[in-house]
Design a protein that fits this description.
Strand order of the largest sheet: 4-3-1-10
Structural class: alpha+beta
Organism: Nocardia jinanensis
Largest sheet: 4 strands, mixed
InterPro entries: Heavy-metal-associated_CS, HMA_dom, HMA_dom_sf
GO molecular function: metal ion binding
Keywords: Metal-binding
Oligomer: single chain
Radius of gyration: 22 Å
Number of helices: 16
Number of strands: 13
Shape: globular
Order of helices and strands: HEHEEEHHHHHHHEEEHHHHEEHEEHEEH
Protein name: Copper chaperone
Length: about 425
């Protein structure tokens, strides 16, 4: 038998969700994470800004716009909004933004989630067995991953998967009062044991989760059972299904028009209609008719007599680390620093950070927003979330930030000093 991890002989060297899911599951055996050391926690300073809802509404302008354009048939009363946007620096020295409700679990969950994600990222990077298995992937397996996923490289795919699980945890904290769980650790364990992470992976679609998270909103309601487990309400399940079906149908219409009416090949259609298809260019546009997609990590695979899913391993470790971090994390609010909008742009004003820039699609989207405003993008670094752009003035910079926020991203104007006394200890 070959020592290479490969796709089956029937696998195509392009879009193939089943083959991609199998490859990722094989890479994760016998373990995705290496042992990790102590997590640095303690006092973490953050700034908070209250979200301003539109008149006679509980939603902001950006939330309402996204709801109307992309979430039909979801209604406004099915959506819960954050009360505050927060900014802080994590233990890696990277600025972050997040959302919380003052009447829920507060700023602790976004902070602790970020530290848990960073810990799991390091654990993935430090796993020599995983690195060896990735090195043994053959060309066919790499082609399947490249043709099916957004991020292509196995390590990038796995890191984004961990971040997505963390995003689901932080986002559902907005509706923590709908559960019987009263501490951050109890809340995380309750979501895991109730199967909520699996519900996100199977019932939501990727762009809905990413975009609503970045806007500080969540379109579901939780119900509590007699055993204290929680589940989505029947209305939430029906609405999520309708939104997902509508998204798949939209993707198919774009592809069918491009291929049948314009005579384009599939790669040419994806390239030409990238903005229309957005993240669903491959994930949904190429799905066979009648197939209902789920997250690749949620696909169950058999290993001998046992069956497992990669998502379960990720969630178990995430909740374990999160619970540890949340018990030893102390959020401390500090005042935000004001910025002037007059005069020419200073050299240092070219640099800013977008903490919720999580994948290559985000890089393309953010770059496109800036370039559409005639702002030259000098550099975008996904790992550090750092962007260098040539703004014409502080006012031009402020307008660009507003445009990014309207698109669901939350730029940070400066990188606070993580070594400043009391910022992280």
């Amino acid at each position: 038998m070959s020592t290479e991890i490969s796709a089956s002989t029937e696998a195509r060297t392009h879009y193939d969700r089943r083959a991609a899911a199998r490859i990722l599951a094989e890479l994760a055996r016998p373990g995705l994470f290496a042992a990790h050391g102590a997590v640095r926690v303690g006092r973490i300073e953050y700034t908070a800004t209250e979200l301003r809802a539109e008149p006679d509404s509980h939603l902001t302008f950006s939330q309402r716009l996204y709801l109307e354009r992309f979430m039909r048939p979801c209604r406004a009363d099915e959506v819960t909004s954050a009360t505050h946007r927060m900014t802080w620096v994590d233990s890696a020295g990277i600025p972050n933004t997040g959302f919380y409700r003052a009447d829920a679990l507060g700023p602790l969950v976004p902070m602790a989630t970020r530290e848990a994600v960073l810990t799991l990222w390091r654990s993935i990077d430090d796993n020599p067995g995983l690195s060896e298995r990735i090195a043994r992937l053959d060309a066919t397996a790499h082609a399947v991953l490249a043709g099916t996923t957004t991020d292509h490289a196995p390590i990038d795919i796995l890191r984004v998967g961990v971040e997505s699980a963390g995003r689901a945890l932080a986002q559902h904290a907005l509706i923590a009062p709908q559960t019987p769980y009263r501490t951050a650790g109890e809340f995380a364990c309750g979501l895991r044991d109730s199967g909520i992470f699996t519900a996100v992976a199977t019932r939501w679609f990727w762009e809905l989760q990413a975009s609503t998270y970045r806007r500080g909103m969540i379109p579901v309601t939780l119900r509590t059972g007699t055993d204290r487990s929680v589940r989505y309400s029947s209305q939430s399940v029906a609405t999520l299904r309708a939104m997902k079906d509508a998204t798949v149908a939209d993707a198919h219409r774009v592809m069918d028009r491009a291929i049948t009416e314009e005579g384009l090949s599939v790669p040419a259609a994806i390239a030409r209609y990238h903005d229309d298809l957005d993240l669903i260019s491959r994930q949904y546009a190429l799905l066979p008719a009648g197939e209902h997609p789920i997250c690749l990590a949620a696909v169950t695979h058999s290993a001998g007599a046992a069956s497992s899913a990669l998502l379960a391993d990720v969630v178990d470790r995430l909740v374990e680390v999160f619970t540890d971090v949340a018990a030893r994390c102390e959020p401390v609010e500090v005042p935000a620093r004001g910025e002037s909008d007059t005069g020419p742009a200073a050299w240092e004003d070219r640099i800013f950070y977008v903490p919720d820039m999580t994948c290559k699609h985000c890089v393309r989207t953010i770059g496109g927003v800036l370039e559409s405003m005639d702002i030259r993008v000098v550099d975008i670094d996904l790992d550090s979330k750092r962007i260098v752009a040539e703004f014409r003035s502080p006012r031009n910079r402020a307008r660009a930030f507003e445009a990014l926020r309207d698109g669901g991203y939350n730029p940070v104007g400066e990188r606070p000093d993580p070594m400043r006394p009391g910022n992280l200890g």
